[in-house]
Each structure stands twice: as structure tokens, then as C-alpha cells.
Write a structure and sequence with these properties.
The protein is α/β, with parallel strands linked by helices. The chain is built from 5 helices and 14 strands. The strands form 2 sheets. A 7-stranded mixed beta sheet has the order 6-5-4-3-2-1-14. A hairpin with a 4-residue loop joins strand 2 and strand 3. The N and C termini lie close together (5 Å).
């Protein structure tokens, strides 16, 4: 499976509007960070993780083909503020969106015209699925296990995703079971995690997790906290996302980190 980082920045993006700090003034393209989102693909299945306000800009360079599902981590605007821009993809059929009860309610409030009894022509055709932690399901070639992390006092979802090529492609959640294929764990906006969630992450091949900045923050991991977490779960390779301008310049930060724990960058493509 192929993972493309569409955006690796925090809610304000980098450069931050009006800022001329050392990071925001960097000429390095690796220091230009749109809001967090990722595209996960096989030859026949395509998933979007979060759909923030930069979605249109992020998706334009990508081939135009069906999106089989959108996994929402949580209801904050920087993670689902671009949902109206999925309209062009509705020519392939309804867009299946997967969210926990809190994010589902947030989407109903943010896009009420998409769920009205009498929808006007042209609105996004969204099929909204409510999902819950530890209730796994399949979308095409992907087996997905939602896990729960805490964004300060807000429970949000991370995802353990495995490619299961022999699975029959279906629409909507379906029963499955946790297996041990090579996997991706994608987590953003985490501050803490319960012990019961850690076994779903231990030993994963690729961990994507948030690292906001160096100084403490009440609802996001710092760089040091993210590095400690990556070492704790023993991921083969860890990529850090949701980074603000306060974290510093990409090249300098990565030079200070272990080779298997690095900042990701917008447009980076991984084969998992």
C-alpha cells in the first residue's frame, strides 16, 4: 500500500499567517506544511484520512479517481473543514465517511445541507457511517481498527490499517478480526493514550503520530513526547506530523532525531 502525506502541519499551517520566524521564512519546501491529511492507496482501493480546509489544494496534483472512504479522526475544523470540496468525487457514487459519534454530530452540524430531507442539487452525496473504537471493519483492500487516544479531554480516533488483498471489496463497515499483516498506525492530535490501546500499536511497521513543538502543550504531544512514544511502541519506522512552526526547520530537526523517527513532509510518499 502507498501512503501520501497530503499535509503535515498543525491547525494554522506553516508558514503561519503574518509570521516571519525562522521556520516560516525558510526557503525549503519541506517547511511548507498544509493542514494534516493523508491518502492511502492500493491499485483498487483509495482511502482519505481527514479532509481539512486545504483538501482542494492537496488533492489537485493527485490522479482523479474514486475515493472509497474517508476516515475522520475528530471533529475539529482543521481535520474536516474541506468536506464540501469532495463534490467532484461524487460522480463515482456516494462518498462513504467514517466517524465516531462526536465527529459524526459535528459533521451534521457543519454540513446540514448534505443531510437535509430535501437536498438541493449539487451538494456532496455523503453516506455517513458511525464507528467505534475496537470495532474493526473492511473497506476494499483495507482492514481498519479504530483505536482511541485523548486530545486533552476529547476522545478521538486513530487507525490501525492493514492491507488484506484477498478481502472482497464492499461498501460500509463489515465484521473482521485483528490480524498481523504489515500495518500502518495513523494518530494525530494525541496528548495521552490509555494502556488498553497500546497493544494495537506495539510493533507496527509504520507509525504516523503527532509532534506539535518542543515546548509543552495542553492537548498535543511535544517532540520529545512523540519520540518517547515511538520508542515505547517499537515501531519499525515513525513519521511525525501535525507540526507547528515552533518545532523548527525540517532538516535541522531530522538531523537531531534517530533515523527511524523523522518528521514527515507534505507530498512525501511511502510504500508500506
Amino acid at each position: 500500500m502507498k501512503l501520501t502525506f497530503l499535509g503535515t502541519g498543525t491547525s494554522c499551517g506553516v508558514p503561519t499567517i503574518g509570521c516571519r520566524c525562522y521556520t516560516c521564512s525558510s526557503p525549503d519546501a519541506h517547511d511548507k506544511r498544509l493542514r494534516c491529511s493523508a491518502l492511502l492507496e492500493t491499485e483498487r482501493t483509495r482511502l482519505l484520512i481527514d479532509c481539512g480546509p486545504d483538501f482542494r489544494q492537496q488533492i489537485m496534483p493527485q490522479p482523479f479517481r474514486r475515493i472509497d472512504g474517508i476516515l475522520i479522526t475528530h471533529a475539529h475544523y482543521d481535520h474536516m473543514g474541506g468536506m464540501d470540496d469532495i463534490r467532484p468525487y461524487c460522480q463515482f457514487g456516494e462518498i462513504n465517511v467514517y466517524a465516531d459519534p462526536i465527529a459524526r454530530q459535528g459533521m451534521l452540524q457543519m454540513l446540514p445541507y448534505c443531510f437535509a430531507e430535501h437536498r438541493y442539487p449539487g451538494v456532496p452525496a455523503i453516506q455517513l457511517h458511525e464507528i467505534h473504537k475496537h470495532e474493526d471493519f473492511c473497506i476494499g483492500d483495507f482492514h481498519i481498527m479504530p483505536i482511541e487516544v485523548m486530545h486533552h479531554d476529547l476522545p478521538i480516533l486513530g487507525y490501525r490499517i492493514e492491507e488484506v488483498g484477498s478481502q472482497k471489496s464492499e461498501v460500509g463497515p463489515q465484521p473482521s478480526s485483528l490480524s498481523h499483516h504489515p500495518c500502518l498506525v495513523y494518530i494525530t492530535d494525541m496528548k495521552t493514550i490509555a494502556e488498553e490501546e497500546v497493544p494495537y500499536i506495539i510493533g507496527c511497521d509504520t507509525l504516523v503520530v503527532n509532534a506539535l513543538r518542543r515546548m509543552p502543550h495542553h492537548s498535543h504531544q511535544t517532540l520529545d513526547e512523540a519520540v518517547s512514544f515511538a520508542k515505547r511502541v517499537g515501531a519499525r519506522q515513525t513519521w511525525l506530523i501535525h507540526s507547528s512552526h515552533d518545532i523548527g526547520r525540517h532538516a535541522e530537526v531530522n538531523a537531531s532525531l534517530p533515523s527511524n523517527i523523522q518528521l514527515a513532509y507534505d507530498g512525501q510518499v511511502l510504500e508500506i
